[in-house]
Design a protein that fits this description.
Distance between the termini: 36 Å
Radius of gyration: 19 Å
CATH superfamily of the largest domain: P-loop containing nucleotide triphosphate hydrolases
CATH architecture of the largest domain: 3-Layer(aba) Sandwich
Strand content: 15-25%
Number of domains: 2
Order of helices and strands: EEEHEEHEHHHEHEHEE
CATH class of the largest domain: Alpha Beta
Largest sheet: 6 strands, mixed
CATH topology of the largest domain: Rossmann fold
């Protein structure tokens, strides 16, 4: 369960990116979050991954209070999530198998576990025959499948995807969304941030629309509008409710950035991959292209 109550996020510049929003996403739902540039959807994504901390309000993700979680425990929390980025964030000096295995090594999986789990995940994502290939030899759709396989390998309860088809053509967009639908059918909560109206209309899932930091509509797959409420404190009945704070142990090995508690608008920049597991530089090719 993901629940936000009276959540606000204001940057040090005074920009109010999120304005007192309330939202509940139940286990196993497939949800699109849509809105034009500057609507607040990317900030919401970063609040859920705890790259950013809310200025006020409460965010609960699977029983974890993101406002109270200690900084040293954030990497462990993130490992309960699967995260897929528009630009893939692959390790370009390693092949497909090693890219997916990397997420397993981070959590301390044994070599025997990795040899068992990674081929199964590559088969699920349609990459069984590509395990020796390097990212630069893959199409954009295949690279995104690698990113999804890496996000799923540790069996997260929630999969967050930030514009996962933004660099793909219509065919690969359709294939990636079919894969995410398969993942959702296996019980994983899937949240997709996108600006693709065509894709959203085709998928017929719950759609949350944001504008100027507000949730302006929330529609079910059947087209029924959910109530967009402003909760002034406690639960919807107005009564407060105490929650037991989660016990989370921590390992510091991760490929997420360090969290800066004094966030500014610089937080809107892309994530920088951490390479703490191995001290080798990326050999990623330069230049941008639209993937086929």
């Amino acid at each position: 369960m993901i629940e936000l109550k009276n959540v606000c996020k204001t940057y040090e510049t005074g920009n109010k990116a999120i304005r007192n929003i309330n939202l509940r996403i139940r286990d196993g739902e497939f949800v699109f979050i849509v809105g034009k540039s500057g609507s607040g959807k990317s900030t919401l994504f970063k609040l859920l991954t705890r790259e950013l901390k809310a200025t006020s309000g409460e965010i609960m993700v699977n029983g974890c209070d993101l406002g109270r979680i200690k900084r040293r425990n954030i990497p462990k929390y993130r490992r309960t999530l699967g995260v897929v980025f528009q630009d893939f964030r692959l390790l370009y000096d390693r092949n497909v198998f090693e890219n997916v295995a990397f997420a397993q090594r981070v959590i301390g999986a044994s070599n025997s576990e990795i040899k068992k789990n990674v081929p199964e995940m590559l088969k699920l994502t349609g990459l069984g025959a590509k395990y020796k290939a390097y990212p630069n030899h893959l199409s954009g759709g295949e690279q995104q499948r690698v990113a999804i396989a890496r996000a799923l390998i540790n069996h997260p309860q929630v999969l967050l995807a930030d514009e996962p088809t933004g660099n793909l053509d219509s065919y690969n967009t359709h294939e990636i969304m079919k894969l995410l639908e398969t993942v959702n059918s296996m019980g994983t909560t899937v949240i997709v941030i996108t600006h693709s109206k065509e894709m959203v209309d085709e998928m017929k899932k719950r759609v949350i629309t944001m504008d100027k930091g507000l949730i302006v509509s929330d529609e079910t797959p059947e087209g029924k509008s959910l109530s967009v409420m402003t909760v002034r404190g406690g639960n919807a009945s107005g009564k407060g409710r105490s929650r037991k704070r989660p016990e989370i142990s921590v390992e510091n090995t991760d490929y997420w950035p360090d969290t800066n508690e004094a966030e500014t608008d610089d937080s809107e920049k892309h994530y920088q991959e951490e390479r703490r597991y191995e001290n080798r530089p990326d050999s990623r090719g330069s230049g941008k292209r639209r993937h086929r």
